[in-house]
Amino acid sequence: MKAKKLIAKMQALLSKDERDIARQKKEIEKLLVALEAKEQHFRHKLELADTDIEREKLERKIAVCNAQRQKGGQALISLQED
Amino acid sequence: MLRNILLPTIFGILAYSFWVSPDFKTVAAGLSLFMFGMLSLEEGFKAFTGGTLELLLRRFTDRQWKSIALGVVSTTIMQSSSLVSLITISFLSAGLIKLAAGIGIIFGANLGTTTGAWLVAGFGLKVKISAYAMPLLTFGVLLIFQNSKKLKGIGHGLAGLGLLFLGIHFMKEGFDAFSETINLSSYAVDGYKGLFLFTAIGAAATVILQSSHATLVLIITALASGQITYENAMALAIGANVGTTITAIIGSLSANIEGKRLAVAHLIFNVTTGLLAIGLISQLIASVDLISEYVGIRSDDYTLKIAVFHTLFNLLGLIIMVPFINRLATSLEQHVHLPKTDVATPRYLSSASMEVPAAATEAVRKELINLYEYAFRLIAHGLSLHRGVIRSEQALTEAASATRRVMDLDVDIYYERYIKNLHGSIVDFIIRLQSTAIDEDTAHQLSELRQASINILEAVKALKHLHKNMSRQLLTCGPNVRKQYDEMRVEIASVMRELESLRQSDGDIILSLDAASLELKQSDHQLNSGLDDLIRQGEVTQTQATSLMNDGNYSRHLAESLIAMGRRLFGARKKALSEAQRQMSLADSELDDLMNKADLARGNALEDWKS
Q1: What is the DSSP string of B264-304?
Q2: Which of B264, B356, B473, B519 falls 20 to 30 Å from B330 in CA-CA distance?
Q3: The dihedral of CA B180, B184, B186, B192: what is its sign?
Q4: Which of B266, B263, B268 is nearest to B350 (CA)?
Q5: Do residues B234 and B306 lie in contact, with contact meaning Cβ atoms separated by under 8 Å?
Q6: pLDDT over 70 percentage in chain B
Q7: Separation between Cα atoms, residue B326 and residue B334, nearest integer Å
Q8: Residues B182-191: tens digit of each pLDDT
Q9: Average pLDDT over every residue of B422-444
């Protein structure tokens, strides 16, 4: 069993596709962290916004961040399942 | 005409010489093998220019001493100052390194190339070098037949080394046999007359052979078999140094202005070093004797003493010229320039930058940014807005409504002279590059960059249409139509401002552009509903309404093209990151959903407020 696991790990290490997927997962995780911080930043700005136009713009930006985070989460899950 | 008769003449002379002297045939075959070996070695190193070499060039050119050291080390390893010069010109043409750094590398390469003389004099002539050549050739050729690019590169390198060794062996054999029939040393010329004469012969031989390295090996092997005198060999070595600049000048003919400046710097350095060596010949000979004695070289080992001499006068030139590198770079930038033209010509694209794929891709990227700068200026002025306003934090709505004068601009002429010409050059360069052996990633990047260029072109074309009506109506129409045009101007300027701020930041541009796309959809939606209201209330004529609808479309198309260009040009270059961003980026339908949800939420809030 251990040998099988080791072989699988070695295969993953040597396979270009596996390495690409691992890299992609890492990048998505990094982007998700960055997007969360960005969303927090917009939410903070929203609390301080003076005008309706500014508030609406910030709300749209938050909605975009949120939707992107959802997509990123789904992409991460599907990569892990693969 | 001259070119047509030159090659047959050379062929004729060589054929006659081979018929007269079989020993000359051996020397010539040795030289040919040596040069073919150098070509193979260069081919081998080119297989590794996809990353490591570029990384080194970028990392080690931030300080002058690093540039010089890089030139010395890389030429020592590659044994080819031509390849180092080629890559340097490539990177310089692509705008990846500064002229001063390029000059530093070339100066360093001149010193690095002296290691070749040490290798030949210290190793090549002291051991039976042909014994090493055979296994190197066998392993090399076997590896060349492999599929892997890296293995092929190693194969070319090994076969190249094998051919170099075999070439040196044949040259040595040829000169040894030659000395039994003819004694060339009887043609030796003493004193300054001989010095100048043999310097000229060395320079001419290097121009013909296109390689100072090959000339030097020829000099050392001829010296080893007593065919030339030590003094004349020194003069020939000086000449080889001067002659090698011709190779750089020929190479720079296909380079852009930066490459040409570098070739001039190379010429100045080598001619100065050569003149110094001629002027200080007595002192140099004394120094060579002193150093040779100190390091234990026999007084009659002239081949090693030539290596000492070659290193010494190149080092002397380097020490004298290094303090002037920055001044030389500034002076070359001031005095060597292209004639001014009315049309935009590519700044970074040249045949020289095409030699290294990584440099070529960067050259395309930089040229596209150049094209975008022209387009930015044209679009800003076409909207009658100053570029400074778009790049500042000033409220765009106020800036648009404050416009009292339509900027005088012939969009068609500007488009023909600057945008179309540059776009054509970029596409032509990409097509030529795609026809060379490039990897899949580079091919993908290039096709994205080509599309970005088309996006810029489309944005400018949309402006051409928009500008026609806008320039006519902006100040003459009623306040309602003016408001509509101002909203269009703000819509485009907002996208341009967003792109400007994103390209200055290190953030994830692709994802941030999703928000810009949503903003564009929102403002477009407002523009359309505003126009609907105006038509319903009869505030605009039918003709005005049609014009506004058309111009609204052009305005949206312009802004969308700029966003698409931004995604391609300013997006991530790392494959994994770019793929991750693509997966997380929102599709058009998803952005529509977000907008509908926002509208619904706003509607509900309004209902709540009303009730």
Answers
A1: HHHHHHHHHHHHHHHHTHHHHHHHHHHHHHHHT--TT-HHH
A2: B356
A3: negative
A4: B263
A5: yes
A6: 90
A7: 12
A8: 666 666 677 7
A9: 86
Cα gap B401→B487, rounded to integer Å? 9
A64 to chain B, any CB pair closer than 8 A? The answer is: yes
HSE-CB of B142 using CA atoms within 13 angstroms: 6
Residue with structure tokens 């390495």? A19
CB B211 within 8 A of CB B31: no
Residues of chain B contacting residue A26, judged by C-beta atoms under 8 Å apart: 576
**What is d(CA B186, CA B228) in angstroms, rounded to the nearest whole number?**
8
pLDDT per residue as tens digits for the range B75-127: 888 777 777 877 788 778 777 788 899 999 989 998 898 888 888 887 766 66
Alpha helices by DSSP H, listed for B393-478, are: 396-401, 411-414, 421-434, 440-473
For residue B366 the two structure tokens come to 């930089």
In single-letter form, the type of residue at position B210 comes to Q
Which SS3 state, helix, strand or coil, does residue B63 take? coil
A46 at B interface, C-beta within 8 A = no
Q: What is the pLDDT of residue B35?
A: 81
Residue B373 has pLDDT above 80, yes or no: yes
Supply the pLDDT for residue A23.
Answer: 85
Query: How does the average pLDDT of chain B come out, rounded?
Result: 84
The C-alpha atoms of residue B190 and residue B245 are separated, in whole angstroms, by 26
A61 in contact with chain B, both atoms CB, cutoff 8 A: yes
Per-residue DSSP letter, B147: S
Enumerate the residues of chain B whose CB falls inside 8 A of the CB of residue A75.
Answer: 580, 583-584
Token pair, residue B541, equals: 């004529």
Residue type, B267: L
Q: Which of B108, B115, B105, B343 is nearest to B216 (CA)?
A: B115
What count of Cα atoms within 13 Å lies in the side-chain half-sphere of residue B216?
A: 31
d(CA A55, CA B605): 14
Interface confidence, given as ipTM, is: 0.82
| Beta strand residue intervals within B189-323, DSSP E | none
Residue whose C-alpha is closest to residue B192's, from B104, B255, B280, B292 = B280
Whether residues B594 and A31 touch (CB distance < 8 A) is answered with: no
Interface test with B, best of A18, A64, A69 (most B CBs within 10 A): A64
Cut 0.90: pTM above it: no
Please tell me the predicted confidence (pLDDT) of residue B54: 64
Question: Given an 8 Å threshold on Cβ–Cβ distance, is B508 in contact with A26?
Answer: no
Residue of B nearest to A22 (CA): B576
